[in-house]
Design goal:
Number of strands: 15
Order of helices and strands: EHHEHEHEHEHEHEHEEEEEEEHHE
CATH superfamily of the largest domain: NAD(P)-binding Rossmann-like Domain
Largest sheet: 9 strands, mixed
Low-confidence stretches: none
Shape: globular
Bound molecules: nicotinamide-adenine-dinucleotide
Number of helices: 10
Radius of gyration: 21 Å
C-alpha cells in the first residue's frame, strides 16, 4: 500500500518523539506512530529547542525537514496530518493556524488540549467552523482496543448495573487525573459532582481523596505525588462482576463470579478474563483510529471530540475551584 498521508510534528520533545526509538516494541510517540504506519510519512517537524530538534532528527531520520519556528513549517510544507505535541499553553495558537489550512485533514493534539477557559472557548469556536476536519485529543486509552473492550462490556450491560468504583493514581488531579476522568466519563457519563475528602495543593495541581458522582455511577479517587513510583489502578464493581485496571493499565481484567471451591454457598470473582495488553502500542492505535476516521471507517470522532472538549471545561473548572479551596464542586449539564 502506498503511503498516502504526509505528516508534520509540532513539538519534538518526549511525546513528540524522544520517549521511544525506531525498532522499540513500544510505540508511544507521534514520530514512532508515523514511522511504523503503512499510510503515513513524516515529512517535517519543528521545535523551538534546537537540542530537541537535533536529537529528534537523529532518531527519526535526517530527511525529515526541520524548523525552529512553526510558522515556517506551515508556510513551506504540505501535509495532511499534524501532531501538536508542544507545551500545553501553546496548543491553542498552533491548532488555530492548522485548522485554517485547507490541506490539513487530521490533527492529533496532546492533552490537555488547552491551558485555560479563554483558549477553550476560542478553540471550540474555531472547531465549530471546521467540522470537516478530524481532530483527536490524545487521551490514548480512548483509541485502545483493550479499553474499548472494557467500554463495550460496560455499555452492553454484560456485567449488570454499575455500583461503585475506586481508583488510585500518581501525579496531579488535573494533569494525570484527566486520564482517569476521561475513562470514567467514557464508561459512566459526565461527572456531576466532586466532594473533597482531603486536598493538598502543590505546584498548581491537587492531591488528595475525592468522591465523584458520575451520571451512572459514583466512587472514590485518591492520588499521590508519585515521587517514588507511578500508579494507575481502578476497580469498578458491577451487579454481576468487576472490571479491574492494574499495572498502569497493562493489566485489564473482567472478573465474574463462580461458586467458591472452599466456602459452600459463596461466589467469588475467580472467573478472570485477562485482556491482551495493547497499551505499549498506544500511539499506533491513536493514529490508526485517525486514519480510519479519515476514510470513514470510524464515525464517532466528532462525538469523542465533543466529549473531550466538554471534559476539558469540567477539568479546568475542577482545577480552579479546588485551587480556590472549595470542597463541593457541581458541574452544570451542557
Ligand atoms: N497523552 C499523554 O499521555 C501525554 C503524555 C506526556 C505528555 N503529554 C502532553 O504532551 C505535551 C508535551 O509534553 P512532553 O512531555 O512531550 O513535553 P516536552 O517538554 O518533552 O516537549 C515539548 C516540546 O515542545 C517544544 N515547544 C514548545 N513550544 C513550542 C513552539 N511554540 N513551537 C515549537 N515547539 C515548541 C519544546 O521546546 C519541547 O521540545 C504536553 O501538552 C503534555 O501534557 C501527553
Amino acid at each position: 500500500m502506498s503511503k498516502k498521508y504526509r505528516a508534520a510534528i509540532f513539538g519534538c520533545g518526549m511525546i513528540g518523539g524522544l520517549a521511544d526509538s525506531p525498532g522499540d516494541r513500544k510505540i508511544i510517540t507521534h514520530a514512532h506512530a508515523f514511522q511504523q504506519s503503512d499510510q503515513c510519512t513524516l515529512v517535517a517537524c519543528c521545535d523551538t529547542k534546537l537540542d530537541n530538534l537535533e536529537s529528534f532528527k537523529q532518531r527519526w531520520g535526517g530527511s525529515v525537514r526541520s524548523f525552529s519556528d512553526y510558522h515556517d513549517l506551515i508556510s513551506n510544507e504540505q501535509f495532511e496530518i499534524a501532531s501538536v505535541a508542544t507545551d500545553t499553553a501553546t496548543h491553542a495558537a498552533i491548532l488555530k493556524e492548522l485548522l485554517a489550512l485547507d490541506g490539513v485533514k487530521l490533527i492529533i493534539c496532546e492533552k490537555p488540549i488547552v491551558a485555560d477557559f479563554e483558549q477553550l472557548r476560542e478553540i471550540e469556536d474555531i472547531l465549530s467552523k471546521h467540522q470537516e476536519k478530524t481532530v483527536l485529543v490524545n487521551f490514548s486509552r480512548r483509541y485502545n482496543p483493550g479499553f474499548g473492550k472494557l467500554a463495550e462490556t460496560v455499555s452492553s450491560g454484560a456485567l449488570g448495573r454499575p455500583e461503585y468504583f475506586s481508583g488510585v493514581f500518581s501525579k496531579g488531579l488535573y494533569h494525570n487525573g484527566c486520564h482517569v476522568l476521561e475513562l470514567l466519563e467514557w464508561f459512566f457519563g459526565p461527572v456531576a459532582e466532586v466532594t473533597v475528602n482531603a486536598n493538598t495543593l502543590f505546584d498548581g495541581d491537587s492531591y488528595g481523596c475525592y468522591y465523584l458522582e458520575m451520571e451512572r455511577c459514583a466512587g472514590v479517587l485518591a492520588n499521590s505525588r508519585g515521587d517514588e513510583f507511578s500508579i494507575f489502578e481502578m476497580d469498578m464493581l458491577f451487579q454481576h462482576g468487576r472490571i479491574r485496571i492494574a499495572e498502569s493499565g497493562h493489566r485489564l481484567q473482567i472478573d465474574k463470579p463462580e461458586e467458591s471451591e472452599l466456602y459452600e454457598g459463596y461466589r467469588m470473582l475467580s472467573d478472570v478474563h485477562r485482556l491482551e495488553d495493547s497499551l505499549p502500542q498506544s500511539m499506533a492505535h491513536v493514529l490508526q483510529y485517525g486514519c480510519d476516521a479519515l476514510e470513514e471507517k470510524k464515525s464517532d470522532a466528532g462525538d469523542i471530540l465533543a466529549a473531550h472538549l466538554a471534559l476539558s471545561g469540567r477539568l479546568l473548572r475542577l482545577r480552579d475551584r479546588l485551587a480556590a479551596g472549595e470542597t463541593k464542586i457541581r458541574f452544570d449539564r451542557t
